[in-house]
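Fold this complex.
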Amino acid sequence: MADSGPRGVTVVSSDAALTLEGFSKTYPGGKALDDVGFQIFPGSVHALLGGNGSGKSTLVKSLAGVQPADPGGWLSAGSATVATEHLSPTWARRHGLRFVHQNPAVFPGLTVAENIAMGSGFPGRLGVVARRQLRRRTQDLLDRFDIGVEPNELIDDLRPADRTMLAIARALQSPTHDVSAAISVLVLDEPTAALPEEEVAVLLASIRRTAKAGVAVLYISHRLDEVMEISDRVTVLRDGRHVVTEPMVGLAESDLVTYIVGRPLGQLRRESKRRSTKQTVVEVSHMSGGPLRDVSFRVHEGEIVGIAGLLGSGRSEILRALFGSYPVTGGTVKLQGKSVALRSAAQAMARGIAHVPENRDAESSFPDQPVQHNITAANLSPLTRLGWIKDAVEQRLAREAVKAFRIKAPDQAAPMSSLSGGNQQKVVLARWLSRKPVLLLLDEPTQGVDVGARADAYDIVRTAVSEGLSVLVVSSDLEELAAISDRVVILSGGRIKAEVSGPELTHHRLTELIFSTKELAP
Amino acid sequence: MTSADVSERTQIAEGASSVPPANRHRAALEVAERLGLPLLFLALIVVFSILRPETFPTLANARTIATSQAVMAVSALALLFPLLAGRFDISVGANVGTASIATAAAMSNHHLPVAIAAGIGVLCGCLIGLVNGILVAYFGIDSIICTIGVATVLGGVVFAYTDGIPVSAGISPTLTNLSIQRVVGIPALFVIMVVLALTVWAVMARFTFGRQLAAIGSNEVAARLTGLPIRRLVLLSFVCSGLLSGGAGVMLVAAQGNGNPQVGGIAFLLPALAAVFLGATTIFPGRYNVPGTVIAILFVGTAVSGLTLMGAQTWITDVFNGTAVIVAVGAAAAFRRRRTGQQALGH
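Structure:
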C-alpha cells in the first residue's frame, strides 16, 4: 500500500482532491493535533475516526479555517496550496471545500425551495422572487441528489434523513447553481448522530451517490458499522496523532477498535451481574419507547449505576422515562417492589425520584431568580404553611445548603445567573438532594463544570449514597463514569448490550464496548 | 471589646477600603437603579410645584391624583400575575370596562343592591379571566394575540348592550360616594387600592403561588421538571388577573359615578402597562414588583396631571403614555439582561 503507514502520507499522489500535511494545533493545555497528514481522493468516501479528544473536531475546524492550525503545515486542494496558518473560511470555500455539521441549519416553516435559496440567493429582480425559476432550480438540485421531495414541501414535513440531505445539497450547490468541478471536498461531521436508526441507511445511500458523482467525502462518525458500510478509506486519530490511513477493504471492526483505543480488543463477554444482598430500589423491565428497545436493569440501594453509550443510544431517554417526562410504550417500572406509573415529573417526585437534567440552562436553572429560590424550588412544602412561605426558614435552609454544598455565591439573594456553571450545578444538586430522594437520576452532571466543582459534586453525591441513596448516572466522560460507578451498563441503539463491574470497570474497557457494535454472546 | 473583635473590625475596615473602584461604581449604580424612579418622581413634584405653585402642590390636587390613579393601579396589579408567568393580558382594559358596565347595569337596569352588583362585576371579571386562561393555557394560543381578540370581542359586546350610551341612572350612592369619602384624610379608593396592592404583594412574594408563577416565567421547562402543573398555574394567573380587573371595574363605577362604555380597551391599558414595566426597573430591578408598579402609576398620573395644569393639550397624555411604555419596556429589558448576563438580539 503506497500511502499507508504510521506517518500517513508517504507517497503524495497528485490526483488527490485534498492533501493535508503537518497539521498541528497547540492549545495552552497541550497539543490537540500533532503533525497530522493524509490524502482524500475524488469519488470516494474517506472516514475520519477517533475517540473523544482524539483531535477530529480540531482538525475539521482547522480545515474549515475557523480555527487556523499552527504554522508549519500545508493543505492543497486540487492545484492550489495554502500554508495552514493562512487557511481561512474564504479560502476553503473558494477552493471547493464544503462543511455540513451535526445539526444542519435548516429553516423550519419555510419550503424546500426557500431553504435551498437561503444558501444561494433567491432568483428574481428588485427583491421580487421569481417563483417559477426558484422552483425549477430547486427541482434540478433535488433530481441531481436524488432527494425524493417536492420543492414546495414544508421543511417540517420532511423526514430527518431528507432534511440532512437537503443541507448537504445546499452546501454543494456552487454559486452558478451547477454541481460540478467547483466542489471538490465535502466534510460531513457526524451527520447521522441525530438521526433515528431507520433514517441512517437512507442518508448513507445518498452520500454514496454524492461521492459517485466525483466529490471527495470526508466522513466523521462515531458509529463503526456505518463507517465500514460507507467508506472506501479510513484515517484514525488518537490523542491528536495520526494513527493510520488505510483502505477499508480487509479491515475488521476489531482492527478499527484497536486503532481507536490503542490496544488490542479484549474478549467481549457479558459480565456476570454482581449479586447484591441489598434491596432492589428500582427494577426496569422491558422498557421500550422512542429509541429504547426492551431495556431491563436494576439498581440496588446505595448503588451508583452508570449508563454509557453514544449520542442517540437512548441514554438520556432512560432517565427521562424514569422521571415521567418521556413517554414509554412498553415495559414496567418497579420502585421498591411496587409497580409504578410514571407519567409526569410530579408523579415521579412523589415516588422519591429526583432528576438533574442534561442541559442546565434550558432545563433546570431559573436564571433570573435568586439562588435561594433556586435551591428550594422543588421542595417548598416543608417551609410552607397554607401557601405562605416562611421566609426565615427558607433563608436558613438556603444558607445551610450553600455551606454544605460549598456553593460559591456572592449572596444567596443574588440571581442564579451570577454563579459559575459549576456552582449553578451544585445549586441544582442541592435542590434535588434536599428532597431526600430514594433514586437520583443524573444526566451529564459535570458537563461544563470545572474540576474543583466536579470533585465537590461527586463528594456530595457519594455522601448521599452512603446514606442509602441510589444513583443512575449518564455521562460521556467515560473516565469519570468508570471512577464513580459501581456498575456500568452499555447502551447501543436503544438496547443494553453489556454490563461491566469490578476490576474490569475501566474507561478503556468502556470505550471498547461502546465502539464495538457486535452483538455479544451471553 | 476583645482584641479579636478589634482585629476583625480592622479587617472589615480594610476590606471596605480595598473595594476596587469598579465595584464601588457598580454598587452606586445599583442604588441609583433601585431608587431612580422614586427620585425622578420627587424631582417631578418639585419641578411642577415651582412652575405651578398655586394649583399643583395642593392637598386637593394630591387627592385628585390619588383617586383617579387608584383604578389604574389596580388594573396594573391585574397585569402582574400573567406577566410573572411570562404571559400578557392585553384584555385587562376591556375587562375593567366590561365589569364596570355589568356593575352599573345590575343596579340601573335590574335594581339589584350594591353589594350584589359589585359581586356581579367581580364575577364577570373572573369569568373573562377564566376564558383567557383556558385559551392560553389549554389551547396554547399566544397570550398577546388571544387577549387582544378577547378585548375586541368584549368591546363589541359592551357596545351592543349599551348602544354606546353610559349607564348612569340608579347607581347606588353608597358606591359613588367612595370617590369623595376619606379614611383619615386619604381618599377611600386609594385606601382600597393600597389594601389590594398589599394583598397582591403578599401573594406574589410570600406565597408558593407567586413563587411558582415566577418559576414558570423564568424557565418553563425547568418549572415542569420540578413538578409544577404549568397549565393549571397559568390558567389561575389569568383568573387572578380577571378578579382584579373586575375589582377595578367596580372601582371605576365608584370613581366616575356611571358605567361608561367609552372607557376601557387598549388606550386605557397603556398607563398600566407602562407602570408595570417602569416598576420592574425600580425597587427590585429586573423583577416585576408591586411597590415599583404602584410608584410608577403615581409617577405617570402625576406627570399627566402636572402637564395638564401647565395647560398642555389633551393629546399630550397619549404621547406621554405611549412613550412611557416604550421607554419602560426597553429599560426593563436592559436591566434584566444586565442582571442575568444575557445578550440582546444580534444583527
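Chain A has four domains: 1-96+184-190+210-265, 102-183, 278-352+439-452+476-522, 364-437.
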